[in-house]
Amino acid sequence: MTSNSYRREQDTLGEILVPKDAYYGAQTQRAINNFQISNRRFPHEFIKVQAMIKAAAAKANMENELLAKSIGNAIIGASEEVMEGKWDHQFVLDVYQAGAGTSQNMNANEVIANRATELLDDAEKHGRIHPNDHVNMSQSTNDTFHAVIHITAAVIINQKLLPRVKQLHDELKRKSIELMPVMKSGRTHLHDAIPIRMGQEFSGYAETIHEVYQQLERVTDSLYEIGIGGTAIGTRNNIHPDYSKKVIQEISRRTNLPFREPTDMFSYMQNTNAPIRVMQVIKELSIHLIKITSDLRLLASGPRTGLTEISLPGVQPGSTIMPGKVNPAILEMTHMVCCQVIGYETTIATAGVAGQLEINVMMPLIAHTFIESLEIMSNALPTLVTKCISGITANEENCKNFMENSLALVTGISSIVGYDMAAQIGKEADSRNVPIKQVLQERELLTPEIEKALDPNGMV
Fold this sequence. Notes:
Largest sheet: 2 strands, antiparallel
Distance between the termini: 76 Å
GO molecular function: aspartate ammonia-lyase activity
Strand content: 5-15%
InterPro entries: Aspartate_Ammonia-Lyase, Fumarase/histidase_N, Fumarase_C_C, Fumarate_lyase_CS, Fumarate_lyase_fam, Fumarate_lyase_N, L-Aspartase-like
CATH topology of the largest domain: Fumarase C, Chain A, domain 2
Strand order of the largest sheet: 1-2
Protein name: Aspartate ammonia-lyase
Number of domains: 3
Organism: Oceanobacillus bengalensis
Helix content: 55-70%
Domain Fumarate lyase N-terminal: 14-343
């Protein structure tokens, strides 16, 4: 690009060239120059909340007579354009950037300041709206960036994740009722166990997800604490006494969520407790989903050489070399998402350890991994439900054959003939590869009482 494509801007380090058509300014440009790491940007949901805080701060500062109404209203107007996504392309910074998110905060301040200046009436354009003095008034990166993490996560959890975890629970519950008549062999250690209803297996899956849903509801409450007004280190320096209350009220109004001030501002500023706690629950959800999806892949294995007790909906061809092969693609995708989330939980825990004194400077890393975890899990769950769980059917004949040939049926007669005799009968049936009943008949032990004890319906 030619020199005519740039403008000269100045910050506390001196002059720097910035693209002429960019709404961001000098500090954003320095961060662009310094951090070409991953080509990953913060998502619109995060940028939207950044702008929401800027608008709420401008409103509070106007009401507290610290900011001229013409400037405050222009900042609110520019912030709302950012919230709508109009200027997402101006938020250009890599997620791996300077600690605490200072660069990301300045990206928002500069874009909003320059756009707000354009929105001023000609009669009001007596000077440029300043990114620090006006847009960042009463704020620090240290309190606002931290708050953006909490607000963005709380919105995603309430609007997406919680409803979708509930959707998964409800579908598993419905499927458990549908499959309750199907009798099958249980398995422990991947070996024969006493009979179970397929619906009982699925009811276990459903309740597991329900318990995680309840935990997620409880732990999300910690995200409602936002330290707006704590400024640099929690001492509320350079703010009006009513500032925090007014900003939090405006954010609660815009999100319809019950945000509040922290119980202790200094604890809030020093730590990233809420993301750590929430991610522990998301990690647990991932662990359970891996268990459930692994079970379903095993139960659907085949179609000729595996268990094939259930059939999954076919969603796409499974091989470029084996014609007609169909793989459990949705279950595999879900497992991958869960692996990523478990890794991200470790990242957030490690970043949490890196807090020092009055601030945790790893907040950009925490923000990126936390929000991406919530997003990919929120997107995976409805795919799992609609493209897999809803369409599962039982292969009753296979289930019946496995159950009737299970060596564990001998458990039913152990209280009649004794543990040792039952074990001998089971071993003989196994060595000869014949049913338990055949051995009992040959030994003239198949009495009505024992035949009743062998009935799988009496074991479930």
